[in-house]
Structure formats: C-alpha cells, structure tokens
Amino acid sequence: MSYGWWGKILRIDLSEGKITQEEVSEKIYEKFIGGAGIGAKIIYEELNQNLSPFSSENKVILATGPWQGTKLPGDAKWSAMSKSPLTNTYGESAGTAGFGINLKRAGYDALVIQGKAEKLSYIYINNDEVEIKEAQFLRNKDSLETFQILKRGLNNPKVSIAAIGPAGEKLVRFACIVIDEHSFAGRCGIGAVLGSKNIKAIAVYGNKRPSVSSPDKVEELAREQRKKIRNFASENGFTEHGTPAAVLSAAQTANLPVQYWREDSWDKAEKISAPNYTRVLKVKPRACLYCPVACHRQIEIDHPKKYALKGAGPQYESLSFLGSNCLIDDVKAIAKANDICNRLGMDTISAGACAGFAMECFEKGWISKKDTGGLSIRWGKGDDLIQLLEKIGKREDIGDLLAEGTTRAAREIGQGAEKIVAQVRGLDIPAWDPRSFFATAINYATGTIGACHERGMCPSIELGLLFPEIGIKEAPKFFDPSGKVDICIKSQNLSAFFNSLVICNYMVDGGGMSLTEILECFRAVTGRDWPINKLMEVGERVYNLLLPGRTSQAQHQHPDPQLQIQLLPASFPQGFFLYREGLPSLFQAQPFPHLLYFFQQEEVLKSASPLS
Fold first, then answer.
1. In 3D, which of 556, 456, 559 has the Cα closest to residue 499?
2. What sections of 458-609 are H helices per DSSP?
3. Strand 199-205 and strand 121-126: pairing?
4. Which of 301, 242, 318 shows the shortest CA–CA distance to 274?
5. Residue 265 pLDDT more than 80?
6. Is the pLDDT of residue 609 over 70?
7. Which burial class, exposed, middle or buried, applies to 374 when counting CB atoms under 10 A from its CB (0-12, 13-18, 19+)?
C-alpha cells in the first residue's frame, strides 16, 4: 500500500467530453514523488516538441504530492505545468490557498486537462463526482467575480476555485491562475493555456483523508511544526510584515529592479517597503489552509477613491515590478495596479516587466501616443501604469502587442528594443538581480523554465539561508564567484524536490523548518526511510528530465538561450552578462557548462561541477 499517495490521476479530455481515472505505479512515485516531478514526467512523455502551446494537444497538469492533505505546515502548495505560451517551452508555476488540499482530499494526486471544450466551461470536482459544465455566464468576468459567482452557485463554503480572468480568455501570454481570490500561479502563462481550452475555472472539494504510514506521528509533527514555525515567523516579523519587508533590504544590496534594470539603487524604496506598507495599506496577514506563517497580505484602501480597494495586497515581486521597476513610489497606486493584474489574471512580474519596458521605449521614442491610443507611458506615473495594465489585459492598442510578452514585443518594435529586454528564453527576470547574486545568475541562465527564483533557491542562500545537511553551512560572499556553481546545483535540485513534495518554501525560508525536520515528516507520511541524499537524487532526476536539449519531447530549443540584462554604467562587479550556447552538444556530457563571462574584467572563469 502507498502511504501519502492515492495512486490515482484524474484525466479530463475536453474535446471528447471524457473523464477517466488512471492508476499510477508506486515505482513512479519513488522516482518523482509527485507535484512538479509527476508533471514533468507527463509532459516529457506525452507532449510533442513542435506543438503550439495554444493547440488542443497541449496539456495542463495540476499536481499534488505526499505533503498535501496531511495538515503539515506548507501543505497548501501545489504545482501547475504546461507548455508555456510565453517561452514556447516547458512552463511551471505553483499556487496555494485551498485548491491542492481539496484536490488531494477528493482522491486524486493530479489532474490532467487536455483537448478543448466547444464552449466556455468550468470543471467541478466534488470527490468522485466530476463534471464539465457550461460557463458562458462567466465570460469576461474578472477572476474575483468568477470566484464569487461560482462560490454562491455551488453552495459549498469549503469549495476551492482556480480561475482565469479576461487576460486568460484573451490569451495574454503571461495570464495566470487565480486561486480563492488571494493566491496566484503566476509564471509562464498557464492561465492562457486554460483560456485556449475554453476553461474558465476549476472548482474542487474533497473530504477524504489520504492514508499515511504513522497517523499519530504525522499529527504530532504537524502540531509541533506549526507551533514552532508560527513562533519563528512571529518573532522575526515575517507574519506581521510579510515579503514587502524585503523591498528595503533588496535596495540596500543592489538587488532591486529599478527603472527596468537601468539602475541598481533607489532612494525611495522605504516608501513602498514594510513597515510603511503595513501601516498605509492597513494590512492584515492572511493564511492558506493550515499555514502558520500567513504571508499573504489582506489590505484596505479608502482614499483616494480612484485607488480604493479591499483584497489581496502586493507581495515583494509585485511591489518591485509595479513599483521601483517603474519608478513609482506611491504604495496605494502600486496596490491598485496589483489589484488590476489580479482581477484581469496576469502575472505581476511579466506585466510589470512589460510596463517598465514600454516606459523605456516611450522615453526613447520607439513607441508614441499613436501606438498607445493617446496614453502617455511615463516613469513614476501610477495612473499611466494602471491604464497600461488594463490595455494589456484587454489587448487594446499597445496592450495587444505587450500581451505577447517583452521578447516578442521587442522584436516587433525593433530599433534596438531587443537589446534592453531582461529575460531568459523569453521569461522575464524576477526581482532578484543576477548582477548582484552570482549563483542566481547561473540559476537563471540554466533553469528549466527560464529565469525563476522559485526553481532554485539561490537568492535566499546568497542572503544567508543555510542547509548544513547538504553542505551549505555558511553564507557565501557577495560578488565572489567561489563556490557559486555548487550552490546553484544544490539549490536547483533542492527546489525540484520541494516542488515535487510539494511544500511551501516559506516554511523553510521565513519559518525556520530544517531539511532534517522535513525528512522526519516525509518518513512519517510515506513510511519510506530515505536519507536526505535520496531526496536530493529525486530533485536531480526531475531537474535533469526538463533540461533544455535533454527533454526529447516537450522542450523547444530556443535559439541562443541566454541571460540578458542591461549592463550598469558602473565598474565590476555590478554589471555582467552570462550566457550559454550550443545546447545539443553541451548537454550530452554534463547538465550545463558553467561559464561566467565578466566582460568588465575581461576574464573568463570556468568551472565544471558535474552531477553524479
């Protein structure tokens, strides 16, 4: 008997109107655990390399792991995977709230959605009852309206709903999935893939309890860990201030995206960072199911009236890309811009990147009011940003082009615009500056989905998060390449494991949970007495499965993949450019070549640290 898994995947073929349940071998879980690991295997085996992300042949996989349904801290996390319309390669994101727990408690380890519905539809999963239902009444409704309408209509206060907004319906290439009004599976445009399949929402409710190896031990560990993490997060201020507190520290470490990566410092960061953020926006911490951290921000703005709202507040990434990236220091304007993205259903990283990119193009005269429908797109103007985001989500005027993403928009604009886009394989660089963090730079350039800080915990490690169990026993030095390759490899494998388990990173980074404690919980749930290196091997296996050039089916080889970001007009070590080339041959022998080119030093540092 498998503990921690149902051994069952729910598959919905929208074209055929067919709903099936598939048995999963225990050996598969031993190799891939669940979550991102199971999704990676399905995509590797079932998707053709040349299919369009908007083709009915593309698939969306929403997957859980052994952690879900146990009440262990961090069990609200779940993984979402598809072929990305933004990068045209493997796409992965993650959500929280109540969806993953309900999916697991409905009796499924994963949901696979394929084909295309004839009309706009939603999926309703109520334990063993699964239906594909007409959803024309939800067309053009924003994601929060969709949630509220379905919640009332289904008459089940415990149902969890993952929905797309108008941006997903209009195939904005970075459309996200919005879960229970306050969580967002943001990156890679998986919301747009659901839109291409005519799926507006997935509602799920389950009340089954997955079997675990040692029920009393799991309950004891869950209770102990929730208490410990709650105290830790309270004492370090994480629960009170959340990720917005990172804005000021990021500015102090040359880590904040400023004026679309043209600068590395900003003297107004304090205005949009906590504690000012917490005070001005009247923040109340909001938790996912069974979460002791409560990182989500519930905010309220009464005035000015144009920014009035009550709902989910911006996190660090959103504050950075809608704030410092656009030189906007009015935290209320940023919160409103964030709310617009949430309602339209757009990833705030890519939406903010598009806005900053457009502001620079407008400043340089590469686009004009003729292109924007009369709208000025100016640095530091919150109202300009809000109007631009609405145009993007609705594909109006310049928004129609920007909805294609920065890389495609730059090719269309020309005039040198391609040279200023900060991206890896078309995925916009997140708000952790690779010019400051060298392990992060390697991680971005070699990541499975492009530039992503959640698929490689390098930024946290470079800021001092330690994992002594895997040899990371002291904080690395800033602007020193020594040991950064090793950190990157371990970080990528660790993240692949976490995303397969699936556990929220904040239980570790902010909550203080150790790898040893995670392993103890894993053993109690699954009954598998695995050492830590066995779990890291799973992470390595999942990561390697999705490497560009190795994935025989799903991975589209982007021409000349590289980490592209503007060089700063300062001396080393602030500005550098990192790249790799020749994927097919380079990936035969090793996972990736670690070649850092520090052009300002005119020095090439070479390091090879192959995986065993």
1. 456
2. 458-462, 484-501, 515-526, 532-545, 583-589
3. parallel
4. 242
5. yes
6. no
7. exposed
The DSSP H or E segment spanning 394 is helix 382-394
- Structural domains in the chain, CATH included, are 8-205 (3.60.9.10), 242-427 (1.10.569.10)
CA distance 301 to 330: 12
Residue 441 sits at φ, ψ, to 5 deg, of: -60, -45
Cα torsion through 65, 497, 78, 120, rounded to 10: -100
Q: What pLDDT shows up at residue 563?
A: 65
Tokens found for residue 54: 């908007």
**Alpha carbon distance 89, 554 (integer Å):** 7
Give the mean model confidence (pLDDT) for residues 420-446: 91
**Could you say which DSSP state residue 294 is in?**
-
Place of tokens 């309602």: 343
Instruction: Tell me which residue of 249, 299, 243 sits closest to 269, measured CA to CA.
Output: 249
Angle 357-361-362 from CA coordinates, rounded to 5°: 115
pLDDT band at 302 (very low <50, low <70, confident <90, very high): very high
338 vs 173: CA distance, rounded Å: 18
Do the Cβ atoms of 433 and 570 come closer than 8 Å? no
**Residue 206 and residue 98 in contact, taking contact as beta carbons nearer than 8 Å:** no
Residue 184, Cα to own-chain centre: how many angstroms? 8
pLDDT range class, residue 2, cuts 50, 70, 90:
confident
- Rounded to an integer, the average pLDDT of 265-283 is 97
List, for residues 140-194, the tens digit of each pLDDT value.
999 999 999 999 999 999 999 999 999 999 999 999 999 999 999 999 999 999 9
Q: Residues 577-606: pLDDT tens digits?
A: 333 332 223 223 233 323 232 222 222 222
DSSP conformational letter for 374: S
Listed in sequence order, the residues at least 6 apart from 473 whose beta carbon sits closer than 8 Å to its beta carbon are 466
Lowest-confidence segment of 91-95, 103-107, 564-568, 597-601 by average pLDDT: 597-601
Find tokens 């604009």 and name the residue.
413
Cα dihedral angle (466, 472, 474, 477), rounded to 10 degrees? Answer: -100
Handedness of CA 459, 460, 462, 463 (dihedral sign): positive
- pLDDT value, residue 565: 65
Give buried/exposed letters for 57-72 (b at 16+ CB in 10 A, else e). Answer: bbbbbbbbbbbbbbbb
The DSSP annotation for 57-120 comes to T-EEEEE--TTTTS--TTTT-EEEEEE-TTTSSEEEEEE-TTHHHHHHHTT-SEEEEES--SS-
Selected residue with higher pLDDT from 595 and 106:
106
Please calculate the CA angle 56-160-110 and round it to the nearest 5 degrees: 50
Residues 6+ apart with CB under 8 A from 216: none
- How many Cβ atoms are within 10 Å of 20's Cβ, its own excluded? 12
